[in-house]
């Protein structure tokens, strides 16, 4: 008998052999379990497949399927040769195979299967997901993270280079993992700045309607084409801004935001309307007298939240980060990078005078200063073959925006003081509170309490450029040089994946075990700067309470933090943290929101709790791409039994001939 991890690797090796066959349905039999010999999978006929068919209505009693995808990673071009005359207003050319129009501006990018976003994954709960990643980007390592999925028993597939795996070179790597939790997730590169260049896509796990915690009449339709993927976009490569150029002011900024890879190039800082109405926008088709489930995925990379509104429509929130919540109706959602929200719109009481409405996306914080906004379209009575639909109703603009009546997650909202401006802590999870022991996470005394300030270390320019100094940094503009820190430590990745190690060693550090060079850390000089792999050890089943405090000194930035391997309860958030009242706010009567990504209010704090019941090595980090790249991260080493890596799992590390 093989172990589960062995089955996965052998199965992955099996399915990438032979000539490709597309669209085949492969069901797992009733008696199949993940400890069975891999030869059982051979009998299913998966030996020469590159793709299988898993998009269907999820029904009770149906057999789970093998869901096989092939991802080809390439250097590619937006508005390249595949787009023919798209830039000249020939709308149909913008939808040609392999055309990536983005916002109509030519630029180099990184693509997956020559799509933007990359190919969506739509499966049913308990399906087995297999993704063969083929990296064709010469000289560039890559990896894919499955954002929000816990990877229980299978941390080897989490997709973080030098934490759970080696980067994928010009080769193929097979990710194999079960679709164990229903909800809205996404996948994205976890290497360098690749997400900024186009490596991201939707991952949705559905379950039978009878298994959902809401009533069956909460919505009529849950369609894959009603998934909204937000991403920011630049007209230059991200590396132009990393580590940065001293002449660049205001420094690092996106050019625009895209919806499902489409957008108009807009600039609110000028008096000219640069809209080219012949260029495509993302369009979502609905009919009257129905209700539809929509899913928002924020795959943005820069330091901004985004405000989402649908003209003349209320949004009934039903889930966040894959977890169902008690229904709450708003007209505006603010979504930060890494977050996901599911909502329902009802089309029964919409005026017959209009057949199309604007979906309005507005950048907040610094992106509001930059004048970044975008549109998509909600179209009534049309179908997916109709292109170039533009609503007749007046288009909102920054000077004439849509009204806000009730908004969730608005920056710097004072939590609990207004029924119109709602915080994450005003949400209530449903569905997971009945699982054994969950309530103790938010009611019991924590086993571990951690208080982690996050911010930046600013270097003295002379010290920074001393001979032999090579610290991580970003140059915002002029001589401002800084690195990101958590607990005064800039995280650096080790030379080989942390998961390979049987026990922590002296190459790691944390606040109680700092290298000698870090003993006298201050906030100004390179000589006292501390960078190392910040690894915190947790015992299996510890209840962990973690408070993040924003000490970045940036009043317009709210840092979104994502925890791999877990979801957590958001216990409280606010503007003024005081550690002397930490025992006064345990939740006892209702279930706090259960998420895997949460933003720290600007210059404020957030407190989360989770039970460390998933052994592995799990990254915890700010989801702004530049902040992670310059060290705003740490790793939780959760003790406990882990299955060994699949046989032949790639390894990497230092090679030093003389030391």
TrEMBL record:
Cleavable signal peptide: 1-23
Superkingdom as given in the UniProt entry: Eukaryota
Domain Plastocyanin-like: 98-208, 226-381, 525-639
Protein keywords: Copper, Metal-binding, Oxidoreductase, Signal
SUPFAM superfamilies, A to Z: Cupredoxins
PANTHER family in UniProt: FI03373P-RELATED, MULTI-COPPER OXIDASE
Family, per entry: Belongs to the multicopper oxidase family.
Name assigned to this protein: Laccase-2-like
Organism: Neodiprion lecontei
Lineage, uppermost ranks: Eukaryota, Metazoa, Ecdysozoa, Arthropoda, Hexapoda
